[in-house]
Design a protein that fits this description.
mainly alpha
Amino acid sequence: MGIGLLLLAIFVVAAIVMFTRALPAVITLPLMGIALACGAAWIDGGISQQDILKGVLSDGALKLHEAMIVSFFGGALSFVMQRSGVAESAVKQGAELVGANPLPVGVFSLLLVALLFTSLGGLGAVIMVSMIVLPLLATVGLSPAAGAGIILFGMSLGGVLNPTNWVIYKNLLGVPVEDIKAYALVVFATVMAAGCAMIVFELFQSRLVRFEARFVGTLLALVAGIALAGWALVASSGSDAGDATPLWLLWTRRVALALFALVLALIAYDTFHKITRWRQQEVQIRGWAYLIPVVPLVAILLFDLPILAAFALGFVYAILATLRPGSLALSVRALIEGGASVMPAVVLMFGIGILVQAVIGPAGWKEAHGGATWPVLAAIEPVLRQFVPSTPMGYVIGFGLAAPLALYRGPLNVWGLGYGVTAILQSANETSNVIPPAAIMAMMLSVGQVQGICDPTNTANVWIANHQGVDVQKLMLRTLPFVWAAVFVGLAVAAVRFY
């Protein structure tokens, strides 16, 4: 009872501290873990100093080591794309292709921002992309709020397909990458449809499109295409490991490898052709450079390459695709400065790991204590049985209605208390199997879209709202209905798939 009250008190205090911004999450989360472990040791005499120092602090800080390394390579890849001019050129080239019709421009911008942010990250990348895309959206008549919404939807969509985020769920919940990958495609399809719906709604409000049968048919075809593509990808990636590889997948892989080999040959030819005037040449962005964000994603989705290996491959390809005088220096700077740019996220992962370890307990605790449950878990389990939905319908309705708790650093915020809640739910499964681990992953990934797109406390949201002259709270209210609907759809798919 005492530990349960302690846990509740710590969570409440942490929520207030982060909501009022008295302390950032990067400091609050490890302090939560330390306070919880020390408080539990004070109440329960069976917890030793070694359990706290090694089992919680040392092991917890390294719990997400794989995600930290992947983040490092992701930061390096993002640095190359920004400093080489590939990201800026991609937006400008795409703008010339789409034309001036507001609907295609809006949907294209959404897809392009999503593609870029599968590799890009950080406020610097947000500012760079926004400074190019937002004027383009304004020239075709989209309102400042609509332009801001498109950027936020695109950033979150890119995050869904960013494998760096998948590693965290794999480390924390032990969910196979295949399940995470398949469900990420579901979330991408639903949030993409929600983003398109927001664009259409904004265009109707601005009277930039008319309600015509041809328009409605095009819109329905677009949404149906997104849904079918997502379903096909999920179905293809959901087969058992023992099943034979489908013939179409084998041929797709062969074609992809052949195209990749052709691109590498073109890069080699182009390098050989210009090497005689290496120092005098003008820097040019070649067409194959635009494939940089696609390479690691295809390597994972199509070839099941390990995430870390895929990012390393993407980094090497990025250097080759942007080869120029100074590329060696650029690659070194990318590894140093790009890695430094993701340090806030890495430090946050230290705190998340410590908090999670304080909840689940040191490795080998049960064996060393005759099968006894870690005291924190033992205090949490009775509460979970009463309040956590255990049926598919309760799962969808309960977590769907609770989705706004991801706002304002709430208990479902994935970069705040959310991973602590995740650890609690996962730990309870050891004894009572409250929610399947894959369903926990699906819930956090779906609900995380509310935080990623709508949360007024996000640095990106604040900057974009100020740049567009829109109140950040009003921006939240304009995007939340569409994201919330996508959350319910995503949870419904998860209930069918994982229960």
